[in-house]
């Protein structure tokens, strides 16, 4: 189910249609096919498109999240989506530049005759693959801290054996006081 909207937002009317024509029947069919109890939970935020009295199906319970919880409960809303959009825009501009520089096409001709859903999906794929582990980790650590490592050092390997000669050189340069030996410092 798809509808155009100038602001690229879901409208209340469209959302209600989606619940009645797509979501509700799909959930009911799934529950029946899998011999599951006829009960489902739909969790919604307080977006303007979500009507406060949405109880169209007896088997479907609607739960509304408290106001201002989206940034915490939906980490993709924070930096991941904006990062993805920036990466997509970068890929799009790069492609437009390549086409106008390397072919006889104008940008208008490219848009009209050569930019299609396949090209768009490839750029979406490239942009998503460019989202870093660090960005995803940063977004998820507020909601589910146990799911991410304490610290992520991408592309950085560290071994204590690598720093031993440096430490010994510094200690030797500074002079040694007391009865500590080099072996004692390494252990």
UniProtKB/TrEMBL annotation:
Q: Which residues form the DDE-1 domain?
A: 2-140
Q: Where is the signal peptide?
A: none
Instruction: Select a single GO molecular function from the record's annotations and give it.
Output: DNA binding
- By its UniProt entry, which Pfam families does this protein fall under? DDE_1 (PF03184)
Question: Taxonomically, which superkingdom?
Answer: Eukaryota
Tell me the InterPro entries matching this sequence: CenT-Element_Derived, DDE_SF_endonuclease_dom
Q: Which GO terms describe its cellular component?
A: nucleus
**Protein name, per record:** Tigger transposable element-derived protein 1
């Amino acid at each position: 189910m798809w509808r155009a909207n100038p602001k690229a937002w879901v409208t209340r009317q469209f959302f209600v249609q989606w619940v009645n024509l797509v979501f509700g029947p799909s959930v009911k069919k799934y529950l029946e096919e899998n011999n599951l109890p006829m009960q489902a939970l739909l969790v919604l935020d307080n977006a303007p498109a979500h009507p406060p009295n949405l109880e169209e199906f007896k088997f479907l319970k609607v739960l509304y999240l408290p106001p201002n919880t989206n940034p915490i409960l939906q980490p993709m809303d924070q930096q991941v989506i904006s990062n993805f959009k920036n990466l997509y825009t970068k890929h799009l501009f790069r492609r437009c530049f390549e086409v106008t520089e390397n072919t006889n096409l104008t940008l208008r001709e490219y848009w009209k005759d050569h930019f299609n859903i396949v090209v768009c999906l490839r750029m979406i794929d490239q942009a998503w693959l460019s989202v870093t582990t660090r960005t995803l980790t940063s977004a998820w650590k507020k909601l589910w801290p146990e799911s991410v490592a304490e610290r992520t050092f991408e592309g950085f390997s560290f071994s204590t054996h690598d720093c031993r000669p440096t430490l010994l050189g510094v200690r030797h340069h500074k002079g040694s006081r007391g009865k500590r030996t080099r072996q004692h410092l390494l252990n």
